[in-house]
Amino acid sequence: MSSRAMSAVDHAWYRMDSPENLMMVHAIMWTDQPLDWERVRAEIAAQMLERFPKFRQHPVPPRLPLGRSGWSDDEDFDLDRHLVARTLGPAGDQAALADYVATQISIPLDPTHPMWQVHLLDGYGTGSAVLFRMHHSIADGITLTRVLLSLTSSNTAHAGFTADEPRSRVAQIFDLSSRLGREGLRTLRAPDRTLVAATTAVRGVRRLAHLAAIPTKPRSALAGQIGVDKHVTWTDPWPLPAVKRISRGSGVTVNDVLLAVLADALGRYLAEKGTPLEQVRVMVPVNLRPLDQPLPSDLGNIFGEYVVALPTGEMDPMARLIRMHAITDDLKDSPEAVVAYLTLVAIGAMPDQVEDLSTKLFSGKIVATVSNVPGPRSVVTLAGTPVAGIIGWVPAAGDVGLGVSMFSYNDQVLVGLIADKLLIGDLARLKELLALSFADLADRAEAVTLAELATMT
Q1: In the predicted model, what is the mean pLDDT of residues 111-128?
Q2: Averaged pLDDT, 293-299
Q3: CA 69, CA 3: separation in Å to the nearest integer?
Q4: d(Cα 344, Cα 86) in Å, to the nearest integer?
Q5: Cα-trace Rg, the chain
Q6: Residues paired with 68 in a beta bridge
Q7: Cβ(244)–Cβ(412) under 8 Å?
Q8: Strand-pair category, 385-393 with 279-287
Q9: What is the side-by-side order of every strand in the sheet holding 70-73?
Q10: CA dihedral over 275, 276, 277, 280, signed as positive or negative
Q11: Which residues contact 223 (CB under 8 A, 6 or more apart)?
Q12: pLDDT digits over 350-398, tens only?
């Protein structure tokens, strides 16, 4: 049986599992009409299995001490082993679907077979639902979202992604080396570029030192002991045009708006629980793979991360938004995301004990992982049936007890929440606070004058 080594980053994510936090990405799609499961099965076989060989492969131990685990073809592969057919309880509503997802969060997958599942769920309202479970070592969340959307059909550019022809690691490394070589020649020919490159390198070292020096998060309603059991939920949809009106009128990005809403909601939650804080830090993944290019057949993890300080203290909603924009704008000019990716490359090549310490070090500084993924702008269909909604949940490492996923689809935004039951027992209240925070920001954005806005900038 032949196998090939995992990339250093994939290996890092593969080893990051803990009983409290499995490195599993979860996502659901639901429809208002029953799905044809045979057609869904055929789409999975054609779009996932044929295009991306990793869905037929499972992890194997390293051949040498201190080596990396590998990927090997499952000689006993059976698609039906990865398809789970269930019917939701009598209620068949959002709560029933959320409860079902929550029961799956902490169930590990068998590493002797490919580490993914698709749950085919009947009885969700008048239609169906599909739950996707995949281990983070297969690919990052944005890449997996693109894979899942490749199962759908649409007239927009966001659905129906195709994969590259299989290419060897040597070829990929050659491409990267060529790009770096061209960049180096341009730098040597232009002294000003040499200064920029040197400055960027220094800033990268400083940023890594800054990340390591961030103090440990204080104990609060968002930071403390966690357990195994999780629960999930998602908000009612927010109109994306309303979010864009706020961003355009304030001169900020849509991501700034969503992060400001989250900061306000977390601040309210902390205050209600008697542990108010002026700020909390969260980890925000940043895609490093061009979205306008086809996915490579071997998928993988190509993303960095920012540590973002959310302003959770009491303040005017618009002032919070302007502050949030200043924070993210500063990060955009920093090499932190690339530094974080290269740090994961290094961690993936180190012994397990070093990775454990690194995970504890960085997870001990943040209270949540927060992702924002743009989805299809119009309705997509799965097996010929219109998809009514899509949302997912990001995993958290170490002792992080909260995950927040923002996903836009068909001119609407949903926010998915996954939380540790021991740490955050009333997830429904956090969901309510998100809705209140968004409504308050929208109202304030309508009322603020240009003169007021200028004083906040």
Answers
A1: 97
A2: 83
A3: 9
A4: 37
A5: 22
A6: none
A7: no
A8: unpaired
A9: 3-5, 70-73, 57-60
A10: positive
A11: 217, 367, 399, 401, 423
A12: 555 444 444 455 667 889 999 998 899 999 999 999 999 999 998 888 8
* 129-157 residue pLDDT tens: 999 999 999 988 888 888 889 899 875 44
Token readout for 321 is: 């938004």
Q: How far apart are CA 86 and CA 107, in angstroms?
A: 16
Token pair, residue 213, equals: 């020096």
Least confident of 47-51, 59-63, 403-407: 59-63
Instruction: Show Cβ contacts of residue 213 under 8 Å, excluding neighbours closer than 6 positions.
Output: none
Averaged confidence pLDDT in the chain = 82
H/E/C letters for each residue in the chain? CCEEECCHHHHHHHCCCCCCCCCEEEEEEEECCCCCHHHHHHHHHHHHHCCCHHHHEEEECCCCCCCCCEEEECCCCCHHHHEEEEECCCCCCHHHHHHHHHHHHCCCCCCCCCCEEEEEEEEECCEEEEEEEEECCCECHHHHHHHHHCCEECCCCCCCCCECCCCCHHHHHHHHHHHHHHHHHHHHHCHHHHHHHHHHHHHHHHHHHHHHHCCCCCCECCECCCCCCEEEEECCCEEHHHHHHHHHHHCCCHHHHHHHHHHHHHHHHHHHCCCCCCEEEEEEEEECCCCCCCECCCCECCEEEEEEEEECCCCCHHHHHHHHHHHHHHHHCCCHHHHHHHHHHHHHCCCHHHHHHHHHHHHCCCCEEEEEEECCCCCCEECCEEEEEEEEECCCCCCCCEEEEEEEECCEEEEEEEEECCCCCCHHHHHHHHHHHHHHHHHHHHHCCHHHHHHHC
pTM: 0.84
C-beta pairs of 247-256 under 8 Å, 24+ apart in sequence: 249/445, 250/318, 250/321, 250/322, 250/325, 250/445, 250/453, 251/325, 251/457, 252/321, 252/322, 252/324, 252/325, 253/325, 253/328, 255/328, 255/372, 256/321, 256/324, 256/325, 256/328
Distance CA 444, CA 437 (A): 11
Domains and CATH numbers, the chain: 3-166 (3.30.559.10), 206-385+394-456 (3.30.559.30)
What's the whole-number mean pLDDT along residues 301-324? 90
Alpha-carbon distance of 120 to 306, in angstroms, equals: 35
Mean pLDDT (whole number) for 77-100: 95
Write down the pLDDT at residue 116: 97
Do residues 21 and 225 touch, judged by C-beta distance below 8 A? no
Q: Which amino acid is at 407?
A: F
